């Protein structure tokens, strides 16, 4: 289930539009307001160097966000909600929002200047929640990149432990490079070991040959 959708400007975290479910639909003893505050804190953490797509755990829910053309599109879903469907939904919102307000994004100064976009959000949400839409994803949008490659972080790590979101990509890349280097070094050491074994055998053979030659 889609519980909350928010759109914000990346440069300063200014909320541009939002659509929130009835507070009674959020469980686990936390209110919608708490998740809204987390989303706003997340917006303020984002920069132009932040990962363009990410999933962030928060209790029994997941934030999924997509950044495109200086705007962040964020949705809060139950963990059981299809991750691919969530990013398809965000891509749909991004396309329509850009068409309607793209040229005005950098000119507004008031929060929720495009709050009327909620009408489209509600329409899109009904489409993507429909069971038939789940069975026919190919008819909704062009497939996004494999969502399994999208990083998943914990909201506490992102908001309260001083982790810069822009550093997450580089850390993941560094781990990948270290892994590749380890594999390369392991192959090199294995090759050296084989050469050493071959050389030892060669020495033994030479000694035996010389011994019998001069015997």
Describe the model:
This protein is of the alpha+beta class. 49% of the residues lie in helices and 18% in strands. The protein has a 6-stranded mixed beta sheet with strand order 2-1-5-4-3-6, sandwiched between helices. The longest helix is centred in the last third of the chain and has 49 residues, at 165-213. The protein is elongated, with a radius of gyration of 27 Å. The mean pLDDT is 77.
Structural class: alpha+beta
How far is the first residue's CA from the last residue's CA?
Answer: 89 Å
Percent helix, as a range, is 40-55%
Number of strands: 6
Q: Which percent band covers the strand fraction?
A: 15-25%
How does the overall form come out from the CA principal axes?
Answer: elongated
Q: Which blocks of ≥5 consecutive residues have pLDDT under 50? A: none
Mean pLDDT: 77
Radius of gyration: 27 Å
Summary?
With 215 residues, the chain is α+β, with helices and mostly antiparallel strands.
Which descriptors apply to this entry?
single chain, 215 residues, alpha+beta, six-stranded mixed beta sheet, 6 helices, 6 strands, 18% strand
């Amino acid at each position: 289930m889609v519980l909350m959708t928010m759109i914000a400007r990346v440069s300063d975290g200014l909320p541009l539009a939002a659509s929130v479910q009835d507070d009674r639909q959020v469980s686990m003893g936390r209110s919608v307001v708490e998740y809204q505050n987390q989303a706003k804190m997340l917006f303020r953490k984002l920069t132009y160097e932040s990962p363009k797509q990410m999933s962030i755990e928060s209790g029994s829910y997941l934030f999924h966000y997509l950044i495109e053309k200086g705007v962040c599109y964020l949705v809060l879903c139950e963990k059981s909600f299809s991750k691919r469907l969530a990013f398809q939904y965000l891509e749909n919102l991004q396309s329509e929002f850009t068409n309607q307000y793209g040229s005005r994004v950098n000119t507004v100064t008031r929060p929720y200047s495009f709050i009327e976009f909620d009408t489209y959000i509600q329409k899109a949400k009904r489409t993507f929640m429909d069971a038939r839409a789940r069975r026919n994803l190919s008819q909704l949008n062009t497939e996004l990149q494999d969502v399994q490659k999208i990083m998943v972080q914990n909201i506490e790590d992102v908001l309260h432990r001083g982790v810069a979101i822009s550093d997450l990509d580089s850390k993941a890349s560094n781990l990948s490079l270290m892994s590749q280097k380890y594999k390369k070094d392991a192959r090199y050491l294995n090759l050296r070991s084989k050469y050493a074994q071959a050389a030892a055998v060669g020495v033994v053979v030479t000694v035996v040959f010389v011994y019998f030659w001069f015997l």
